[in-house]
Amino acid sequence: MLLKKNIPFRYVFGKIKYEIALVVLYTLVIVLIHDRFNLKATINIPLTVPMIMGTVISLLLAFRSNQAYDRWWEARTVWGAIVNDSRSFTREVLTFINSAEFPEEAERLRERMIRRQMAWCYSLGQQLRGLSATEGLERLIPKREVAYVARFANVPMALLELHAKDLQIALQRDWINAYQQVQIDSTLNKFSDSMGKCERIKNTVFPSTYSLYIHFALNFFIMLLPFGVIEFFGWGAVPLVGAIAASFLLIEKMAIHLQDPFDNKPTDTPMTTIARTIERDLRQMLNDNYVPETPPVYSYYVM
Amino acid sequence: MLLKKNIPFRYVFGKIKYEIALVVLYTLVIVLIHDRFNLKATINIPLTVPMIMGTVISLLLAFRSNQAYDRWWEARTVWGAIVNDSRSFTREVLTFINSAEFPEEAERLRERMIRRQMAWCYSLGQQLRGLSATEGLERLIPKREVAYVARFANVPMALLELHAKDLQIALQRDWINAYQQVQIDSTLNKFSDSMGKCERIKNTVFPSTYSLYIHFALNFFIMLLPFGVIEFFGWGAVPLVGAIAASFLLIEKMAIHLQDPFDNKPTDTPMTTIARTIERDLRQMLNDNYVPETPPVYSYYVM
Amino acid sequence: MLLKKNIPFRYVFGKIKYEIALVVLYTLVIVLIHDRFNLKATINIPLTVPMIMGTVISLLLAFRSNQAYDRWWEARTVWGAIVNDSRSFTREVLTFINSAEFPEEAERLRERMIRRQMAWCYSLGQQLRGLSATEGLERLIPKREVAYVARFANVPMALLELHAKDLQIALQRDWINAYQQVQIDSTLNKFSDSMGKCERIKNTVFPSTYSLYIHFALNFFIMLLPFGVIEFFGWGAVPLVGAIAASFLLIEKMAIHLQDPFDNKPTDTPMTTIARTIERDLRQMLNDNYVPETPPVYSYYVM
Amino acid sequence: MLLKKNIPFRYVFGKIKYEIALVVLYTLVIVLIHDRFNLKATINIPLTVPMIMGTVISLLLAFRSNQAYDRWWEARTVWGAIVNDSRSFTREVLTFINSAEFPEEAERLRERMIRRQMAWCYSLGQQLRGLSATEGLERLIPKREVAYVARFANVPMALLELHAKDLQIALQRDWINAYQQVQIDSTLNKFSDSMGKCERIKNTVFPSTYSLYIHFALNFFIMLLPFGVIEFFGWGAVPLVGAIAASFLLIEKMAIHLQDPFDNKPTDTPMTTIARTIERDLRQMLNDNYVPETPPVYSYYVM
Amino acid sequence: MLLKKNIPFRYVFGKIKYEIALVVLYTLVIVLIHDRFNLKATINIPLTVPMIMGTVISLLLAFRSNQAYDRWWEARTVWGAIVNDSRSFTREVLTFINSAEFPEEAERLRERMIRRQMAWCYSLGQQLRGLSATEGLERLIPKREVAYVARFANVPMALLELHAKDLQIALQRDWINAYQQVQIDSTLNKFSDSMGKCERIKNTVFPSTYSLYIHFALNFFIMLLPFGVIEFFGWGAVPLVGAIAASFLLIEKMAIHLQDPFDNKPTDTPMTTIARTIERDLRQMLNDNYVPETPPVYSYYVM
């Protein structure tokens, strides 16, 4: 996630530098031809023509920004739900699972489940970013479990299955009652839903036809622009067209970056930071004040 | 679903080639008449007139794109929910259904239900695409069940009924407790909801009056265009009108393609691919590492 | 619901024929006066004035189309939910209600409840359309029940009460356990919600002030138009103004028709067709392959 | 709620009569000055300047109309939910609460709760309109209860507490089972949610900065208008500016009226009418065919 | 939250005074140069150019206003849900927790939980505003509990854990049944969700790239404006450009203020006021008519 401060100029404009260079070159060529061969009457266009195109393109860019923002915000909302559900899960595990007979075993079960929940958050984040979903899990769960989940294509799903097996054990030993088991199982369903929602956002390409079309229409609009302004500005058309083109191209680029919130980019959902907050909170509920390592810090974004 | 890469030019523009040919022809005729009979004063229109039309049409196209996108995204979301619920269903079946007395029978019941869930996903996808809903199910469920469901108009609904009957059996034999049965039954309700949502999107035509009207207004706008630009461009009006018409027609076509996500087209929801992922995940939870056959691969889309 | 095909031209344009006639007459009068008295300088308006009005009216029409579409789509979604919940209800009734002692009585109860659910769907549809809510129910439920519900102002609500009484009986006779009863009762609550949502859409008028205002502003805009184009087109202004007016008036009419989806019009939610599908599915689950009568078929819509 | 018919002209335009008078006066003064001192060259503005303002104001008014409509529709939806939940509550009370031993006492409890639910609806409506929340409750609940709830700042909340106490009594006497009590208690939570949603809409002012700003920008736009059209129309500018100003001012006023749906105005949510419908339905379920008094009838709206 | 009345002029325009001063200065310089060197032909721009920019910027500002409003409204909705759930929680605690044997101890437990709920609301509000989350809690909960929660990074989360522990105690002593415990625990989950939603809104920066870009494009648009109007107005361009710039800059500023509803500003969600209302209502349910201290009153907003 980009922070509020310190976003470098080059980050924003770096994304469109080649496009802008091309637009400037193109406008230069047209001005040159116009100037040399005195073609005023022939290649001049009334500004109303690019304006009609400008209206429909503005609406399409607004449409696209909206959908991109919705994807980004849904991704953030899903990770917010993961935070909430992880805390509720921990609270339920801590207060529901009890054993008068084997208090220490129950204690171990509770701790195992809560640490596994921390692992689940990291694992999901890494899987969504296309990294190894088991890396670093040994820090939180037993090696035996790491080995078990490693053989699954979908590691977080396997971790949820281990949760469910532990719950069944607790029920069979009477450390939890039947309603409480179903209640915690409902929380597992919520994790499953959150995971699936992230995968859906990750795997569903924004309709490529729209992307392509908006791109074509935008380029056509920019190609018309110099003909519309050349009469008034002469050489001044070059910076003017450049600036207007930059305005429109930037909106398109931003929508493109925002629409894929799990792609290991600065505009990503800050999954590592969120997972770390979850770990800190869950550890405190376990009376463990170990603060997890700070993830690498960048000057203008967090991951 | 269209992929990000390799979308052929002909796929995008192929959809409007006849319309564009007509527009070019029409503009040519007008330029010809204009040129021959020197009708400048009579058939020239101030560009503001098509511009007023252009504004309202742009807004209607934005409205239509929005609704089409919403249908498409809802379809995708429903199939995402099917993924999540299939995993939760499997996790619950695996951990809830147990029998100390008849462990092998319970094992068989669990496997039967999970394999039937895989079948449900394929069956729903085929039914939505208008193909045979029972084709290929023998691979996953017993012939007896295939025969039973085949007599239903709605095969996936019949499969859910078989799920429910198995659950009732498990409850009667005490392999599951009463809360757990209701909990899994709630998941069956979610499958029923997802199926119904897909049917609703499939069976509900986007309001035809809007489709028709937008189509008429768009054609009227395109027919006005040549009169507006002919004064400035002469023969140059032909490519200009062609390009502007293409821009507007493409948005309309894309909305039309996006709004029906279950029609066996490249822009479809990739139901076969999703069903295959579900099969892979569910098999792994059953300790079965068989990877289902890859569906046919296309260069720029998946089904 | 309008189908995709065969929508007659007269259906679409029939709705605005009087308005268009008036607009054409009005424009004719203005052109005549203009022509006769040579008032060019006096009654000519720069096109930018209607354009400012055109922008705000376009936005208001987009706003109105959006809200009308949302009402229409919500109505359709509610009836989709009725389909899903009817199937879930039937599945639960069939698998939950059992009696080892009185299997035949339980069988009769199950069938009675499921047939009553079919009746509920038809009854709700007829009540929403302002027709008799008890007509034709004898086909599905006992005369005694028809007589009972007939004295209620809200017949479908009374049918749900009969469902609930049967459930209580099943619980008292131990044909169903306590969790299952609450689970089916939750489904009854969903029917109650769906019914109430339909009534809300039916009974809530789209804010009349907006309707009125949009109507006034649109008429004002159309009255300005001839003054804006008369200078350029002379007698040609008549078809031009007619066509532009038709474009705007049609959007308004369509929103008006779409916003009331339970008014016994071709743009309605196809409740009869949906109820018929539910009857077919529920009967098949009862092993009854009777296919309900096809409702009257129209060439371009279903009811 | 405004009805579809009979909305008097004065209701719609009465709201902006002072504003319009001012605009007309202002335009008159400008035309006068312009005419007298022949200031054509100095105070004439190209129409494009008000048009740029017109675009941004149109979008802001569309934004505001949208939010106002959403508040109004949410208010209506909440009251729709109150209808549905009141019916579900009544159905559950009638079928869940039973006593073989004390059938008459149970009967009295059922009736008391259902009548209290009617009272709750009236009470909430009156509280939201800023009227006495206990007025007229004696008609439906015992005096003792009226006295009890009267000491609460939030009367409907106190009525829900009484519901909950009765449920606890029913549970303790075994007239209801534990799952049923929790199920009805969930319905009470829904009433609590609905009540809170109404309070939120009532108490949350639409962001005043937006209101203010839109108001300022709109006035600035109207003040620019005469300068833009004076050149073309002379004295004709007065009615033209007046009509355009009326168009924009009306949209603003309508949004303002719609955004506060609990303010004892004709555009209100028709809470009294809804509460009356609930009373009629609930009484019929109690076998009581008393039809509650019709609330005062107005010619073009219901309260 | 800003109130409807008394918003001082300086509050609204104070936010853009430096920007406006700069715009005025800039326009002055351009008019001066234009006037001195008679550069009319060179630096004059057709107004259509800023108009194309104006359209896209208007749409982006509408997009941004929408998202900012949605964040603000979601924040308010979450706090509305906290009100509703606090009341439901209290009702459930009061009616569910009972002990025939130890009525006084149960009474104490009920009061302790309800007072802790009041504390939770204040604590969450302070934490979101970046203030001390434990300040003033001694007024409502025992010192022992204050000390316990103070060691947590997330104090409200710790308070919920204490709630859950009390519930478990009530279950173990049989003062509550198993379904009731799960029901209240579900309410705790809702508190956890509400808390997490607030944190999400607080911690998620509105996409900085959009903020930056809209800011750049807006400034570019304002810099173009004087060149467009200078020809018509001369020195009159200064107030005109100033007023148009103010219109656009104000919309941007308002969106910026609205989008962060937990930042200790007058546009905040009025969390202190809401928490106070909750305290009053919950105390009344405890038969305690103590009215909490009024928070500091401001002339045009509440906190």
Automatic annotation (TrEMBL), chains A, B, C, D, E:
<feature type="transmembrane region" description="Helical">
    <location>
        <begin position="233"/>
        <end position="251"/>
    </location>
</feature>
<dbReference type="InterPro" id="IPR044669">
    <property type="entry name" value="YneE/VCCN1/2-like"/>
</dbReference>
<protein>
    <submittedName>
        <fullName>Bestrophin family ion channel</fullName>
    </submittedName>
</protein>
<keyword id="KW-0406">Ion transport</keyword>
<dbReference type="GO" id="GO:0005886">
    <property type="term" value="C:plasma membrane"/>
</dbReference>
<dbReference type="Pfam" id="PF25539">
    <property type="entry name" value="Bestrophin_2"/>
</dbReference>
<keyword id="KW-0472">Membrane</keyword>
<keyword id="KW-1003">Cell membrane</keyword>
<feature type="transmembrane region" description="Helical">
    <location>
        <begin position="210"/>
        <end position="227"/>
    </location>
</feature>
<feature type="transmembrane region" description="Helical">
    <location>
        <begin position="20"/>
        <end position="37"/>
    </location>
</feature>
<dbReference type="GO" id="GO:0005254">
    <property type="term" value="F:chloride channel activity"/>
</dbReference>
<keyword id="KW-0812">Transmembrane</keyword>
<keyword id="KW-0813">Transport</keyword>
<comment type="similarity">
    <text>Belongs to the anion channel-forming bestrophin (TC 1.A.46) family.</text>
</comment>
<keyword id="KW-1133">Transmembrane helix</keyword>
<feature type="transmembrane region" description="Helical">
    <location>
        <begin position="43"/>
        <end position="63"/>
    </location>
</feature>
